[in-house]
């Protein structure tokens, strides 16, 4: 499956780029977010699918768009130095995601992965940087 293949490639890129982090391709459960020198986390998640073409075609379209999110959990910065370090980490995650997207786009001719945005959020008292990628492909090109 194209989405699972991309997630596996993305996870491998993140593990190589961030060897000190635990990378998990699943939704974190409540209370599971952690950020310390001992525990560093990256999460890969997906959300609902939609039509890649955004047209009303009476269900004939087989184009699909799947959003994939990479979240890095960071201690909330309390100084300028910590803020600079957090920004650097956020940018490094975006760059790793872009490398994975570029490599996947070169190897998987039936799909296109696009970087959409990065958004910092405060969740459970942590700074969580969420990088959004979209995978677009035709369901008809997937092996059953």
Task: Give the gist of this structure.
With 144 residues, the protein is an alpha+beta fold. Helices cover 31% and strands 34% of the residues. The chain has helices at residues 2-17, 80-107; strands at 22-24, 41-46, 50-51, 63-74, 111-123, 126-138.
Described by the principal axes of the CA atoms, the overall outline is elongated
Helical residue percent?
25-40%
How many helical elements? Answer: 2
Query: What structural class do helix, strand and pairing data support?
Result: alpha+beta
> Residue ranges: pLDDT <50 for 5 or more in a row?
none
- For the record, give the distance between the C-alpha atoms at the N and C termini, rounded to a whole number: 8 Å
| Strand portion | 25-35%
| Alpha-carbon Rg, integer | 16 Å
What kind of sheet is the major sheet?
A: 6 strands, mixed
Instruction: Count all strands and give the number.
Output: 6
How confident is the prediction overall: mean pLDDT? 89
């Amino acid at each position: 499956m194209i989405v699972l293949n991309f997630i596996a490639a993305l996870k491998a890129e993140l593990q190589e780029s961030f060897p000190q982090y635990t990378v998990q391709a699943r939704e974190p459960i409540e209370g599971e977010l952690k950020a310390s020198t001992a525990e560093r986390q990256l999460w890969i998640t997906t959300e609902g699918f939609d039509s890649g073409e955004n047209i009303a075609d009476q269900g004939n379209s087989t184009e699909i768009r799947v959003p994939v999110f990479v979240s890095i959990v960071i201690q909330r910065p309390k100084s300028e130095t910590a803020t600079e370090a957090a920004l650097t980490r956020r940018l490094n995650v975006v760059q790793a995601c872009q490398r994975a997207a570029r490599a996947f786009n070169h190897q998987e001719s039936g799909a296109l992965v696009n970087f959409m945005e990065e958004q910092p959020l405060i969740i459970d008292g942590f700074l969580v940087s969420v990088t959004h990628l979209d995978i677009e492909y035709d369901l008809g090109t997937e092996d059953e």
